[in-house]
Design goal:
By secondary structure, this protein is of the alpha/beta class. The chain folds into two domains: about 90 residues, no CATH class; about 190 residues, Rossmann fold. Helices cover about 35% and strands about 15% of the residues. The chain is built from twelve helices and nine strands. The strands form two sheets. The chain has a seven-stranded mixed β-sheet. Strand 1 and strand 2 form a beta hairpin. The longest helix is centred in the first third of the chain and has 16 residues. It starts with a helix and ends with a helix.
Length: about 300
């Protein structure tokens, strides 16, 4: 009841973007929210929710700070503030939008919110040591595609390629279809329901990209409330977090061309993986948040050492 009264008072008293910004920051701080689904701090989270709700450019706040908010707009902003603060729903589920490396994607609670490092690596030419010319990549697999963001960005970057985007979950593929249509990629990206490799038959790829579930049991048991809104099967990677990573490594060479490359994103258990596969020469790729989360390995190294 006290919270309800707070929002009623806010609706009657707050007038400008600046007012809602102050209120949102105070509210979110009060509820000790976690930020890890697109923003890293309370200020950016509140700014994003306000600007997205008002259909304003997400990179420009200053000109609008003293703009008056309409009653209907205030209702929507406060409703999203309430769901974010009280229910710990990630902002991207409230706006049905996730932004990754400048690309905007539709998301809802059928899929996890995309936050992969793989698009950053692609767009910063991080695979150049393995792929000298992007036009030579013709067949790409996005394994565990989720909302299709990696598949879309890969198709955009490897402009002469065809991409197959695979997921075990038909609900996730329905979301991916929305994003493929958004970017007019239907003739470049094919969606396929498959439990990892099961329905791929004898298809071969120049590049396999995958961001599989990799959260271990300990972390699953201690996740922040925000993550509990995401599909559990899209997060949980087995007791040690490496179940799917191991399955992918054991079978990838069957689906790679002789000059092909496998790129895998995983959690922070790099040492455990290297202990399991001491002979595999993993190349750990650098991202803005450091290395040790994404590795690349060639067909030749897989076929020789697994």
């Amino acid at each position: 009841m006290q919270e309800d009264n707070l929002f009623i008072e806010a609706h009657s008293k707050l007038k400008t973007v600046r007012d809602f910004l102050r209120f949102g920051i105070s509210l979110f701080n009060k509820h000790n929210l976690f930020y890890g689904h697109g923003t890293t701090n309370v200020y950016d989270e509140v700014v994003y929710l306000i600007l997205a709700t008002l259909n304003l450019p997400l990179d420009v706040l200053e000109p609008y700070l003293d703009a008056i908010i309409l009653d209907s707009e205030a209702t929507l902003i406060l409703d999203r503030f309430k769901k974010r603060a009280i229910d710990a729903i990630p902002a991207s589920y409230l706006t049905n939008e996730a932004i990754i490396q400048g690309y905007s994607f539709y998301v809802d609670e059928r899929v996890i919110i995309p936050r992969s490092f793989i698009p950053e690596i692609l767009l910063n030419d991080g695979l150049t040591p393995f792929i000298e010319h992007v036009e030579l990549v013709h067949d790409v697999l996005d394994l565990c595609t989720g909302n299709g963001s990696i598949a879309v960005i890969a198709a955009d970057y490897f402009y002469d390629s065809e991409v197959i985007a695979v997921d075990i979950d038909n609900d996730a593929l329905d979301v991916a279809a929305i994003n493929i249509e958004r970017y007019d990629m239907a003739d470049r990206v094919t969606l396929l329901q498959s439990d990892l490799w099961n329905n791929l038959e004898n298809k071969k790829f120049d590049l396999i990209l995958t961001n599989p579930p990799y959260v271990d049991k300990l972390r699953m048991d201690t996740l922040s409330p925000e993550y509990l809104h995401e599909p559990e099967h899209a997060l949980f990677g087995g007791d040690g977090g490496l179940d799917l990573v191991i399955k992918i490594l054991q079978n990838a060479c069957q689906y790679l061309n002789p000059n092909g490359v496998l790129v895998v994103e995983m959690g922070d258990n790099k040492e455990e993986l290297e202990y399991i596969y001491p002979n595999l020469p993993f190349t750990w790729l650098t991202t803005a948040n450091g290395d040790g989360f994404v590795f690349a390995i060639t067909y030749e190294d897989l076929i020789t050492n697994i």
